[in-house]
């Protein structure tokens, strides 16, 4: 036993955030190890990427089960077979039922491409552009039954630049997603951030209080 927290990653597609987590977990001092990558889509490209990295993979096809409850029971069983302790959603495109969320309460993270609570749901970059915000970004949060509403672990902000479209803004946010998710998982896996009474509690010394990101830059 390594003593590191055992992580399961759920994906539905290429798993770009999964790759950033895999790379982070290769560091010997990283407090978590990925023990399973699972997908609801057997053809998800991320499964092959995970296997190429030497990780265990499982496909739990939602279409092969009669209903959502049966699918989630099969998924939960696969996670427990591999001894998963914390669950990370990385582009997992299934809405989870309250039963599954409660089973993994305080142990399941998601990353959302906006500064929550702004712009829940899909097409967040279009929402941000339409709203005219000057800062946009991404949020890592604990998963709760309400979509994109869980207690926040970490956020990263980027400026919205003149001339931005969805693609350029998305690309800028994605860079920060790949940095933020491994850092947030490390906080949770090491016990430095934990869910208590619906709020995220941090160990002493987490975070800094100096400086601010201002956009547009002020003289």
Automatic annotation (TrEMBL):
**Residues holding N(1)-(5-phospho-beta-D-ribosyl)glycinamide:** 15-17
The cellular component terms of Gene Ontology attached to this UniProt record, alphabetical and capped at eight, are: cytosol
- Tell me the ranges covered by the Formyl transferase N-terminal domain, including all copies: 6-185
Keyword field: Purine biosynthesis, Transferase
Catalyses which reaction(s): N(1)-(5-phospho-beta-D-ribosyl)glycinamide + (6R)-10-formyltetrahydrofolate = N(2)-formyl-N(1)-(5-phospho-beta-D-ribosyl)glycinamide + (6S)-5,6,7,8-tetrahydrofolate + H(+)
Pfam families in the record: Formyl_trans_N (PF00551)
Q: What top-level branch of life does the organism fall under? A: Bacteria
Query: Which EC number(s) does UniProt give?
Result: 2.1.2.2
The active site is formed by: 112 (proton donor)
Q: Alphabetically, which GO biological process terms does the record hold?
A: 'de novo' IMP biosynthetic process
**Record InterPro entries:** Formyl_transf_N, Formyl_transf_N_sf, GART
List site positions: Raises pKa of active site His.
148
Pathway listed for it? Purine metabolism; IMP biosynthesis via de novo pathway; N(2)-formyl-N(1)-(5-phospho-D-ribosyl)glycinamide from N(1)-(5-phospho-D-ribosyl)glycinamide (10-formyl THF route): step 1/1
Q: Which GO terms describe its molecular function?
A: phosphoribosylglycinamide formyltransferase activity
Residues at which (6R)-10-formyltetrahydrofolate binds? 68, 110
Similarity field: Belongs to the GART family.
What does the protein in this record do? Catalyzes the transfer of a formyl group from 10-formyltetrahydrofolate to 5-phospho-ribosyl-glycinamide (GAR), producing 5-phospho-ribosyl-N-formylglycinamide (FGAR) and tetrahydrofolate.
Full protein name: Phosphoribosylglycinamide formyltransferase
Query: Which species is the source of this protein?
Result: Methylobacterium nonmethylotrophicum
- Read off the lineage from the record: Bacteria, Pseudomonadati, Pseudomonadota, Alphaproteobacteria, Hyphomicrobiales
What gene is it encoded by?
A: purN
């Amino acid at each position: 036993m390594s003593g590191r927290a055992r992580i399961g990653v759920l994906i539905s597609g290429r798993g770009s955030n999964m790759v950033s987590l895999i790379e982070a977990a290769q560091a010997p001092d990283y407090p978590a190890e990925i023990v399973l990558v699972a997908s609801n889509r057997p053809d998800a490209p991320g499964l092959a990427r995970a296997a190429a990295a030497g990780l265990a993979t499982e496909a739990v096809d939602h279409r092969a089960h009669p209903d959502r409850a049966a699918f989630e029971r099969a998924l939960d069983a696969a996670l427990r077979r591999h001894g998963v302790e914390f669950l990370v959603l990385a582009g997992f495109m299934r809405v989870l039922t309250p039963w599954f969320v409660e089973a993994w309460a305080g142990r399941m993270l998601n990353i959302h491409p906006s500064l929550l609570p702004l712009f829940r749901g899909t097409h967040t970059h279009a929402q941000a552009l339409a709203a005219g915000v000057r800062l946009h970004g991404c949020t890592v949060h604990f998963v709760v039954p309400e979509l994109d509403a869980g207690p926040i672990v970490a956020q990263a902000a980027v400026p919205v630049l003149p001339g931005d479209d969805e693609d350029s803004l998305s690309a800028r946010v994605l860079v920060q997603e790949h940095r933020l998710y491994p850092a947030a998982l490390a906080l949770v896996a090491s016990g430095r951030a934990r869910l208590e009474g619906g709020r995220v509690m941090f160990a002493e010394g987490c975070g800094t209080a100096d400086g601010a990101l201002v956009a547009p830059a002020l003289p």
